[in-house]
Amino acid sequence: MSWGFLCDLLSGVNKYSTGIGRVWVAVVFVFRLLVYIVVAENIWKYEHDEFECNTKQPGCENVCFDHFFPVSHIRLWALQLIMVSTPSLLVVFHVAYRENREKHRNQKLYKSPGKIDGGLLCTYLISLILKTGFEIAFIVLFYKLYNGFKVPRLVKCDIRPCPSTVDCYISKPTEKMIFLYFLVTTSCLCIVLNLSELSYLIFKYSIKCYLKRYTKKRH
Questions:
Q1: Does the model's pTM come out above 0.85?
Q2: Among the four residues 7, 51, 128, 145, which has the most C-beta atoms within 10 Å?
Q3: What are the CA-CA distances from residue 147 to residues 48, 70, 96, 150 (Å)?
Q4: Series of mean pLDDT values for 10-residue runs along the chain (219 residues)
C-alpha cells in the first residue's frame, strides 16, 4: 500500500502540535513508519511460505499457521499505524472548519485559526486520548493474540486435519522477535509522549484560566 497519505497527514498536523507533539510525529515517522516500510515488510513478506511443518497432510500446514498467526504481525502493525495517526485528522478538520468559517463570514473570528485554544484545545485533547487508547489496545491485542511478545522457533500443532501432533517451524524467529520488541518499545514511547503532552496542555491552560480569574478579581 501507499503511505503517502499518512505522511501528508503527519506533516500537516505537525504545524498545530506542541513541542512534545512534534517529537511524537518524529517518532511515528522515523522509528515506526520508515522502519515498517524499509525493513519490517521484507522480514514478514513470505512468512506463510516459509512456515514449515513436518507433514505432507493437505491442509495441515494452513490450519496450523492460521492457529498460531490469526492475524499477520505486519498487517496488525500497519493497522496500528493507521489507527494511532487518524485521530490527528480531528485537529486538521477543526482548523479547516475555523478557516472556512472565517472565509465565509469574511472577517477575523480567531486570533490564529491554528492556535490551540477554545474548541480546538478540546479537539486536540480528545485526539491525544484516542491515540493513547489505540496504542494501549493494540499492545494488549498483540499480547493476547500471540501469547506474549516472543516468537518461538518451534510450535507443536495437533489441529485437524493434522494426523497427529506435528512440529512446525517459524522462519527468522529471532529477527521477528527483535522487531516485535522494537514495536512494543516505540508504542510505549508514544504512550508516554501522548500522556506527557496531555498533562502539559491541561496544566498550561489550567494555570492560564486561573490567572485570568485572578486578574479579573484584582480589577
A1: no
A2: 128
A3: 19, 12, 43, 8
A4: 58 72 83 76 74 84 86 83 84 77 66 65 89 93 84 85 86 83 89 92 83 69
Residue 4's pLDDT is 57
Give the residue ranges of DSSP H helices in 106-157: 118-146
Is residue 157 within 8 Å of 128, Cβ to Cβ?
no
Q: How long is the chain? A: 219
Cβ atoms 135, 193 nearer than 8 A: no
* CA 121/CA 202 separation, integer angstroms: 9
User: Which residues of the chain form beta strands (DSSP E)?
Assistant: 52-53, 154-157, 166-169
Structural domains in the chain plus CATH codes? 3-217 (1.20.1440.80)
Report the Cα 120 to chain-centroid distance in Å.
22
Residues 17/134, Cβ–Cβ less than 8 Å:
no
